[in-house]
Design a protein that fits this description.
This protein has about 120 residues and is of the alpha+beta class. The protein contains two helices and eight strands, in the order E-E-H-E-E-E-E-E-E-H. Strands 5-4-3-8-7-6 form a six-stranded mixed sheet. The chain has a two-stranded antiparallel sheet with strand order 1-2. A hairpin with a 5-residue loop joins strand 4 and strand 5. The chain starts with a strand and ends in a 13-residue tail after the last helix.
Length: about 120
């Protein structure tokens, strides 16, 4: 992902940089999809697609291989948990994650948050 640092300089943000920024913004949970549900990393909380909101998404392409792509989802649950979910993009995508995300209906992008 390429962003303009100023008018003359381009800055490339990596997946790890974006994930760290998200963590600093309160997205501290690491989500995964298990048995068609979004769960916290410790497995103590689980959510259906209608119980979450996708706040933002970021796509990344590998530097050495354009097919090395990933997507970072910023998610907030109905009970206030905020976290990230990472998937490959395209042919290498995790079918369980892709299927779950397609079922999410609340795609409200956070206002005032950087998308660059």
């Amino acid at each position: 992902m390429i962003t303009r640092k100023n008018d003359s300089t381009l800055k490339i943000k990596t997946l790890s940089q974006r994930a760290n920024e998200a963590y600093d913004q309160g997205y501290s949970e690491s989500f995964k999809v298990v048995n068609k549900r979004l769960t916290t990393a410790d497995g103590r909380s689980g959510y259906e697609p209608e119980e979450i909101s996708l706040k933002n998404t970021f796509n990344f392409e590998g530097y050495s291989d354009p097919q090395d792509t990933s997507i970072l989802y910023l998610i907030e649950t109905h009970d206030g948990k905020k976290g990230t979910l990472i998937d490959a993009y395209g042919v290498y995508a995790d079918v369980a994650i892709s299927t779950f995300v397609k079922q999410v209906t609340d795609l409200t992008k956070e206002k005032g948050k950087s998308v660059d």
